[in-house]
Write a structure and sequence with these properties.
- The chain has 309 residues and is an all-alpha fold.
- It has one domain.
- It has 15 helices and no strands.
- Helix 7 (116-137) crosses helix 13.
- The longest helix has 36 residues, at 3-38.
- It is globular and about 55 Å long.
- The termini are far apart.
- The relative contact order is 0.14.
């Protein structure tokens, strides 16, 4: 394949990924703007259960309240942190929301029907998100977890967490204008990470041989690893990845491998990883990649070796 052909292929894939993702980033930033204006810290405190496990479990289901994919979940999470959402609950929401929402439920049902793939996708995602959230709850200092900019936003610019009074209620019309301004700022702030992540994903799709990876479908362990790599590299939006997973099923990939693709990919892919860096410190982002990866690999290999559908 000559350079011009590769460049054309790269451009096509870049635009395909970007156009698919940017609409969901826009949705996420609009939601974050509405949260900034119309959601008070008291609302978050009243909604969250008092017990740690219950709060993290509730965070895993917040995607049904804020239905955003991995392209839009980061600005929503950042805004929820500013409203007082606990760090561990936010991590569970961040990892689970791209799957645990009604849009993804509908797309997965359309592709696979009601069966092991649909049930397994939601159950495994819930277990993984809660497990990682519980691990993050062991560290109670936001300073060790969050980027300085995100920490400053949480504390109103002081750099230290401190209780704040909620802003008075804003008239609805003025609130919408303010929400649009906040959403615009969020969109351009997060957009640079999306562009960079999209470019990396398109480059990997262009220069890595997908056919060689698909040839691993017959191996119950290596097929899981291949699906994890594909999920990270392809960076397909969680609202449409079930359709692609169906095509992999036609190539002979077993159920455990498909579930790895459908659980790990929405939590961690190239563009999402770069967007995580806008909120969390680099060391924390590495944990947020490695922990879901290891758990999804274990689930996938176990299902392939021990469960027959």
């Amino acid at each position: 394949m000559d350079f011009n052909t590769q460049l054309t292929l790269f451009s096509t894939r870049f635009l395909g990924i970007f156009i698919e993702a940017v609409s969901f980033l826009l949705l996420g930033t609009l939601v974050s703007g509405l949260i900034e204006v119309f959601v008070r810290k008291e609302d978050i405190a009243r909604f969250m259960p008092r017990r740690l496990f219950a709060a993290i479990a509730a965070g895993s289901f917040l995607g049904f309240l804020f239905p955003v994919c991995e392209c839009g979940v980061v600005p929503v999470t950042r805004k929820l942190y500013q409203k007082g959402l606990p760090i561990s609950v936010g991590v569970a929401f961040l990892l689970a929301a791209p799957v645990m929402n009604p849009i993804v439920f509908a797309s997965t049902y359309a592709a696979f029907g009601f069966g092991p793939i649909l049930i397994g996708r939601f159950v495994i995602t819930f277990i993984m998100a809660v497990a990682v959230g519980l691990l993050f709850s062991l560290e109670r200092s936001p300073i060790k977890l969050l980027q300085p900019r995100a920490l400053m936003a949480m504390s109103g610019g002081s750099g230290l967490a401190s209780p704040q009074l909620s802003a008075p209620q804003t008239p609805f019309g003025q609130g919408l204008v303010r929400a649009a301004r906040v959403a615009t700022d969020e969109f351009f702030d997060m957009g640079r990470y999306l562009v960079l992540g999209t470019a990396l994903a398109a480059g990997m799709q262009t220069f890595l041989s997908q056919e060689q990876i698909r040839a691993l479908a017959s191996d119950p362990a290596m097929s899981v690893v291949a699906m994890a790599i594909m999920a990270f590299v392809l960076s397909i939006c969680s609202t449409t990845d079930a359709i692609l997973a169906l095509s992999f099923a036609n190539f002979g990939f077993p159920t455990g491998s498909l579930l790895t693709f459908l659980t790990f990919g929405p939590m961690v892919d190239v563009k999402a990883t770069l967007m995580y860096l806008s909120v969390f410190k680099r060391r924390i982002v590495i944990y947020m990649v490695i922990l879901p990866l290891l758990m999804s690999l274990l689930f996938g290999i176990f299902i392939n070796l021990n469960v027959r559908f």
